[in-house]
Amino acid sequence: MKKALMVIESSVREGGTDPIFRIAGEAAKRTKECGAETVINSTIGALMDDNGELVTFKAVYDTLKALPNHLIAGYAGLAGQPDFLEKIIDACFMSCKPEGFIRSIATPGGTGAVRHAFYNYTEFGDTILLTDWFWAPYRTIAHENRRNVKTFQMYNEKGTFNLEAYKKGILELLEKQKRVLTVLNTPAHNPTGYTISDDEWKSIIAFITETALAQPDSKIILLVDLAYIDFAGEGEDARGFMKLLTGLPHNVLPLFAFSASKSYTMYGLRNGAIICVAPTEEIAQEFVNTCTFSNRGSWSNGTRGAMETITKIFSNEELYNQAMAEQSFYKGILKRRAAAFVEEADKIDLGLATYCDGFFISIPCDHPKEVSDNLMKKNTFVVALGKGLRFAPCAVSEEKCRRAPALILQAINEVKKCT
Ligand SMILES: Cc1ncc(COP(=O)(O)O)c(C=O)c1O
């Protein structure tokens, strides 16, 4: 670690270490040199069409561009615009709203929601429990806010949710801290595409309830990161688990990080919310006061035009149906791409982390960095993670999704021979 010059010791950071941005730059360069046809660029975490262009929903951008200037330029309320705060709850739960005191606070994307949860629901220096395959910025957000992270093995030997490891992780942290915050990024987890089933949720909830009742002085915060929810399951079935998160003991708080980035192709508009399903009015009010203060103390307020756009879409049946039709059309494309990748991987025995839905598929392997470097020589750009590779069907055509598994297996075998 470098020595601090002017920043305080704990703020010294290495520059240029983000592996995704580095490899994405390489992929863009190669595409320019060799043409898009020859390059498989699976580094992008956004939905791209088959020509490599970013998908944008017409319902969203026609609405945004038709807003009068003052509804784009004006400040939003500190907590978010009141009508937006209602509509984002609908966008989050649709017809699967749990019982409880539900409140929302606008945040710049799901990232802002994760930040508020980490900052306000754990102590300085506490450890946050994550799955061992995880979205790397969780660690950045934790460290930025002087928290630590600890992981548990996400998959059991059957390739499903490892409840025993999760239980152990929670009990160990409760013993140390008396308070634990866990992040479950489901459905359609990044980077694996895993979705916790409703039966798995029932077991998780039974354990959380039992633990919370046995340790009434403890506090358990369940942060559910919904970044990919609108690209999971059929219809609203990916939201079925939401209704289960209700009637929990009063020392358990479910929080939801909702993001409009993927769901409404609003990545750069920075729009989302943190939503609580509190067991009491007092806990809900405390959530509102605290997260509103956090907005003021970190970014003041959110993007007004983005909030107005969501409000309009959820207030107008025709617009809403149009937005849902666009979402569903692209969800279909994503499903076909992912199915093509999984089918080809199965044919050649390329082992995958259990994939259900979503933007990413993970391939566990040794020496991921070397395998990713090897693939670059084959004009194939796949992100190296700690435990394997991340392939992004969200960014790659179905035809390329079919070609990629054989190239990946070949690279894994070539690296194996050299190590
Ligand atoms: C797992 C996960 N959570 C949250 C986010 C937050 O995204 P945003 O802040 O753009 O809403 C992302 C974005 O890539 C993600 O992959």
Could you explain how this protein is built, in words?
The protein is an alpha/beta fold. The chain has two domains: 147 residues, Aspartate Aminotransferase, domain 1; 244 residues, Aspartate Aminotransferase, domain 2, CATH 3.40.640. It is 45% helix and 15% strand. The chain is built from 14 helices and twelve strands. Strands 2-8-7-6-5 form a five-stranded mixed β-sheet, with helices on both faces. Helix 4 packs across helix 11, helix 12 packs parallel to helix 14 and helix 13 packs across helix 14. The longest helix has 31 residues. The radius of gyration is 21 Å and the shape is globular. The mean pLDDT is 96. It binds pyridoxal-5'-phosphate (PLP). The site of pyridoxal-5'-phosphate has 13 residues, from helix 5.
Mind sketching the topology for me?
Blueprint: H1 19-34, E1 40-41, H2 58-65, H3 69-73, H4 82-93, E2 101-107, H5 109-121, E3 127-131, H6 137-144, E4 148-152, H7 163-177, E5 179-185, H8 198-214, E6 219-225, E7 252-259, H9 260-263, E8 272-278, H10 281-298, H11 304-313, H12 317-347, E9 361-364, H13 368-377, E10 380-381, E11 383-385, E12 388-391, H14 398-418
Parallel strand pairs: 1-10, 3-4, 5-6, 6-7
Antiparallel strand pairs: 2-8, 7-8, 9-12, 11-12
Helix pairs in contact: 2-11, 4-11, 5-6, 12-14, 13-14
The chain binds pyridoxal-5'-phosphate (PLP).
Pyridoxal-5'-phosphate is lined by residues 45, 109-111, 135, 185, 190, 225, 227, 259, 261, 267, 272.
